[in-house]
């Protein structure tokens, strides 16, 4: 097999939670562009169906949207089941669903804590478990969790978010160890600041944007489409010896 063929996802099927917006959306588009059929999960039906249509038109791959909430195990079982029924299998899982509430620790309510934890950690865990059962039966899988630079460093107002993203790393490592014998790799992508729609609003404040730029050796904010190639690499058969790895894509932030 030629080297570039190893990066092809032709014949593969992928499930992406939180795939209707932000980095999850870009990952879904990149996986499809590399040959995978994609199942996009999210709570925004209009955005999800629009993205699925766009992917079909641009790539010719199969793409479906399934409305679901990763905080619900019932929903998770349902979108895993629907994806398998549609595509016959799930080769790739990307757990991109996540939220953040920016408040100092003493201001976070119990309800807000539960919402962040249930989305970022429980949602990742249950998606991995329910999809992992299928991958274990097939003796094949590529799982990509989404952490953050705040899995390593932190910022004011991010106590719960940073804690959940740190937990995702340990989950990733443990699943990688437990499932290696089933030919399942589990790796974590940890993004720094990207020009997603939600961040663009924040970066309209020059003071905040400069705060971030001063901490980025590369001298700029990341563009969402830059995360796609990394996800394709980890989802492909080009790197079966990489598992349990935590890969930063942060413009050098954590080097300082």
Describe the structure.
There is one protein chain. This protein has eight helices and seven strands; from the N terminus they run βαβαβαβαβαβαααβ. α1 packs parallel to α2 (45-59) and α3 packs parallel to α4 (110-138). It is an alpha/beta fold. The mean pLDDT is 97. A seven-stranded parallel β-sheet has the order 3-2-1-4-5-6-7, sandwiched between helices. The protein is globular, with a radius of gyration of 17 Å. It has one domain (3-194, 224-250): Rossmann fold.
* Main beta sheet: 7 strands, parallel
Counting DSSP E segments of at least 2 residues, the number of strands comes to 7
CATH uppermost class: Alpha Beta
Spatial strand order of the main sheet: 3-2-1-4-5-6-7
CATH architecture: 3-Layer(aba) Sandwich
The general outline is globular
C-alpha end-to-end distance: 40 Å
Element pattern in H and E: EHEHEHEHEHEHHHE
CATH topology title: Rossmann fold
CATH superfamily: NAD(P)-binding Rossmann-like Domain
| Domains, number | 1
Task: Determine the structural class based on helices, strands and strand pairing.
Answer: alpha/beta
Helix fraction bin: 40-55%
């Amino acid at each position: 097999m030629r080297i570039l063929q190893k990066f092809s996802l032709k014949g593969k099927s992928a499930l992406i939670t939180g795939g209707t917006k932000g980095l999850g959306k870009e990952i879904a588009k990149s996986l499809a562009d590399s040959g995978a059929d994609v199942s996009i999960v999210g709570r925004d039906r209009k955005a999800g169906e629009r993205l699925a249509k766009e992917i079909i038109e641009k790539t010719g791959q199969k793409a479906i949207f399934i409305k679901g909430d990763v905080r619900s195990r019932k929903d998770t079982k349902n979108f895993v089941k629907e994806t398998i029924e549609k595509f016959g299998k799930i080769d790739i899982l990307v757990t991109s669903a996540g939220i953040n509430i920016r408040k100092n620790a003493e201001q976070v309510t119990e309800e807000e804590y539960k919402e962040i934890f249930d989305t970022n950690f429980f949602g990742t865990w249950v998606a991995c478990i329910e999809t992992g059962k299928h991958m274990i039966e097939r003796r094949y899988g590529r799982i990509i969790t989404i952490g953050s630079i705040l899995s390593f460093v932190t910022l004011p107002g991010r106590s719960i978010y940073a804690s959940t993203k740190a937990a995702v790393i340990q989950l990733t490592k443990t699943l990688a160890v437990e499932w290696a014998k089933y030919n399942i790799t589990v790796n974590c992508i940890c993004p720094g600041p990207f020009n997603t729609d939600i961040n663009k609003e924040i970066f309209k404040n020059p003071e905040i944007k400069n705060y971030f730029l001063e901490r980025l050796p590369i001298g700029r904010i990341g563009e969402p489409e830059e995360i796609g190639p990394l996800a394709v690499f980890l989802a492909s058969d080009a790197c079966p010896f990489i598992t349990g790895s935590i890969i930063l894509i942060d413009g050098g932030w954590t080097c300082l």
